[in-house]
Amino acid sequence: MSKIEVKKVYKSFFNSGDTVDIADTADTVDIADTADIADTAGYLSADEKSISVLEDINLKINEGEFVCLLGPSGCGKSTLLHLMAGFDAPTLGEIMIDDAPVKGPNSKYITIFQNYGLFPWRNVLRNVEYGLEIKGVNKEDRVEVAKKQLKTVNLWQFRDRFPVELSGGMKQRVNLARALAVDPEVIFMDEPFGALDAITRIKMQEEIIKIRGNNNKTIVFVTHEIDEAIFLADRVIIMSADQGKIQKEIKVKLVRPRDRTNPDFIKIRDEVYKELKLSEETGMLQYYI
Ligand SMILES: Nc1ncnc2c1ncn2[C@@H]1O[C@H](COP(=O)(O)OP(=O)(O)O)[C@@H](O)[C@H]1O
Ligand SMILES: [Mg+2]
């Protein structure tokens, strides 16, 4: 369990499509040198060579909290997640995990993507063992941990299969087991169930809540599915498309497992819809998949 703090974060990309090299930026961007953030942000937005994707993002995620970043495609969810996971550096501002600035990817934080990222040449068991191999854990201990995690996701009997022989839901469960095997402090997930059919997706949502019940990891989960966010999260962070800002935070205090047909669930859903519709009325936000 870790806490995460996003402090006055701005991110812009160069129009050329170049990404900023985290190694270069980490050393050169110093918030103390950019005393007037508002001015600087204006400069960044106005600069024709760069597009501003995130502006003045401030967010505190508590230890063991499950936070969903919700918003339409292109609003900057993945960008924000990548900054937190250390794959890229903010243009301005700072991200802290457990009071230490994020300088790059760290094995304490695992990221799960939509496209599974399993090694096709390794069977299920050896895929789950992978992170432990990197850590130098011996074979016997690796198998023991992998077995526990594969049992958690109900795939132990499929340990000898290769990814090509698995359904999308199974692949994502292997991915989850692989992430849990290294016992990370934080799990970042970027639309992990986006490629799954609706029914498998609901099952995976239920599964992740069950798994999480046993080990309160801090989870930051990106989605554009309103129901998914309300089903999963302690707190839903709604991001707005037009400015790359946090538009609203909604706490979800419903007991788990949640019932999507429950009037309280529907009330929260209405609140989220209203929030997104309000922006739509201004003509600036298109909510699409
Ligand atoms: N490396 C990059 N270079 C240039 N523009 C980028 C880069 N990554 C993302 N963007 C732009 O930033 C915006 C937000 O992207 P992203 O964070 O992927 O949104 P989301 O995950 O909410 O769909 C988009 O307009 C996208 O085109
Ligand atoms: Mg994305």
Q: Would you mind describing this structure in some detail?
A:
This protein is of the alpha/beta class. It has a single domain, classed as 3-Layer(aba) Sandwich (Rossmann fold). It has helices spanning 22-28, 37-46, 77-85, 124-134, 139-152, 168-181, 198-214, 226-232, 263-281; strands spanning 4-14, 50-61, 66-70, 92-97, 100-101, 109-113, 186-190, 218-223, 235-240, 245-251. The chain is globular, with a radius of gyration of 20 Å. The site of adenosine-5'-diphosphate (ADP) has 12 residues, from helix 3.
Lay out the secondary structure:
Layout: E1 4-14, H1 22-28, H2 37-46, E2 50-61, E3 66-70, H3 77-85, E4 92-97, E5 100-101, E6 109-113, H4 124-134, H5 139-152, H6 168-181, E7 186-190, H7 198-214, E8 218-223, H8 226-232, E9 235-240, E10 245-251, H9 263-281
Bound molecules: adenosine-5'-diphosphate (ADP) and magnesium ion (MG).
Adenosine-5'-diphosphate (ADP) is lined by residues 13, 17, 19, 53, 71, 73-79.
Briefly summarize what is shown.
Helix content is about 35%, strand content about 20%. The strands form 2 sheets. It has a 6-stranded mixed sheet with strand order 6-7-8-3-9-10, sandwiched between helices. With about 290 residues, the chain is of the alpha/beta class.
- Count of extended strands: 10
Low-confidence stretches: 20-46
Using the coordinates shown, work out and report the CATH topology.
Rossmann fold
Strand content: 15-25%
| Shape label | globular
Integer-rounded radius of gyration: 20 Å
Structural class assignment: alpha/beta
Mean pLDDT: 86
The CATH class name reads Alpha Beta
Order of neighbouring strands in the sheet with most strands: 6-7-8-3-9-10
Sheet of most strands = 6 strands, mixed
Bound molecules: adenosine-5'-diphosphate, magnesium ion
Q: What's the name of the CATH homologous superfamily? A: P-loop containing nucleotide triphosphate hydrolases
Give the ordered list of helices and strands.
Answer: EHHEEHEEEHHHEHEHEEH
If classified by CATH, what would the architecture be? 3-Layer(aba) Sandwich
Portion in helices: 25-40%
Q: Termini, distance in Å?
A: 32 Å
- What is the number of helices? 9
The structural domain count equals: 1
